[in-house]
């Protein structure tokens, strides 16, 4: 009997999934909270408005992160950065990256990867560099980009949250965002939260590699996040 129980216990342990790390739990909560806001309409004409793409992401993160902290700075409230880094500081076009305050302030994100159009390379080589950058996408990564949309007809900055990791079998990227589409009411712009955005992997790579001033950064929740 004891031997049989030992075998059963061993089998259960073999199929029991590993305990999720706090940063993975926080990332999952962030994705679920953003999906729950699908279809939400908010004013988006300024950085302080919930419909604006960066503010949508930052507000949602503030909501889900209250029960977490950084192990090295337990007193600091967690937050997602909002400000664009100035070109004279970053050496990159404005809109491709955020200002990244020290984690001692509660900044819960770290740079995971970056793409910058390299004028020393051919357009084809830059496209491959954009592909290599996007292959690093994980679920919960936040993308800050300066890109060219709609076959070159629109160019600007945008922030989004990937809901799935890159999977070469799918050749598709999935994300949640706000204000990629918007409309005006009495001259005031409103943005919509979209929980089920998806584009072909090659299309998104082309967005980044379209213009020689484009660029992007992937941000990821820090690994030293812990539950309060």
The radius of gyration over CA amounts to 20 Å
Tell how many strands the DSSP assignment holds: 9
Distance between the termini: 42 Å
Question: What portion of residues is helical?
Answer: 25-40%
Q: How are strands sequenced across the largest beta sheet?
A: 1-7-6-5-4-8-3
| Strand/helix succession | HHEHEHEHEEEEHEE
Q: Describe the largest sheet.
A: 7 strands, antiparallel
Structural class: alpha+beta
Q: How would you describe what is shown here?
A:
This protein has 228 residues and is an alpha+beta fold. Helices cover 29% and strands 30% of the residues. Strands 1-7-6-5-4-8-3 form a 7-stranded antiparallel sheet. It has a two-stranded antiparallel ribbon with strand order 2-9. The protein is globular and about 50 Å long. Mean pLDDT is 90; it is low at 1-16.
Based on the model shown, name its key terms.
two-stranded antiparallel ribbon, seven-stranded antiparallel sheet, single chain, 30% strand, globular, disordered N terminus, 228 residues, alpha+beta
Helices and strands in order, then pairings?
Layout (H helix, E strand, L loop, with lengths): L1 H14 L6 H14 L5 E3 L9 H12 L3 E3 L16 H4 L18 E8 L6 H12 L7 E8 L4 E9 L9 E14 L2 E13 H9 L5 E7 L3 E3 L1
Helix pairs in contact: 2-3, 5-6
């Amino acid at each position: 009997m004891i031997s049989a129980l030992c075998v059963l216990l061993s089998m259960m342990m073999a199929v029991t999934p590993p305990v999720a790390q706090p940063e993975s739990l926080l990332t999952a909560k962030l994705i679920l909270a953003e999906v729950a806001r699908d279809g939400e309409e908010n004013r988006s004409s300024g950085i302080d408005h919930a419909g604006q793409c960066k503010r949508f992401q930052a507000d949602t993160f503030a909501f889900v992160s209250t029960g977490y902290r950084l192990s090295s700075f337990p007193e600091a409230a967690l937050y997602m950065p909002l400000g664009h880094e100035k070109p004279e500081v970053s050496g990159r076009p404005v809109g491709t990256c955020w200002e990244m305050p020290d984690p001692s302030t509660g900044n819960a994100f770290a740079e995971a990867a970056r793409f910058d159009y390299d004028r020393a390379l051919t357009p084809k080589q830059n496209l491959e560099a954009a592909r290599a950058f996007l292959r690093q996408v994980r679920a919960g990564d936040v993308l800050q980009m300066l890109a060219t949309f709609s076959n070159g007809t629109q160019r600007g900055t945008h922030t989004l949250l990937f809901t799935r990791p890159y999977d070469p079998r799918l050749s598709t990227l999935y994300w949640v965002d706000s204000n990629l589409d918007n409309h005006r009411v009495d001259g005031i712009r409103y943005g919509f939260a979209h929980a089920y955005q998806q584009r072909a992997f090659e299309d998104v790579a082309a967005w980044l590699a379209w213009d020689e001033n484009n660029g992007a950064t992937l941000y990821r929740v820090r690994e030293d996040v812990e539950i309060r």
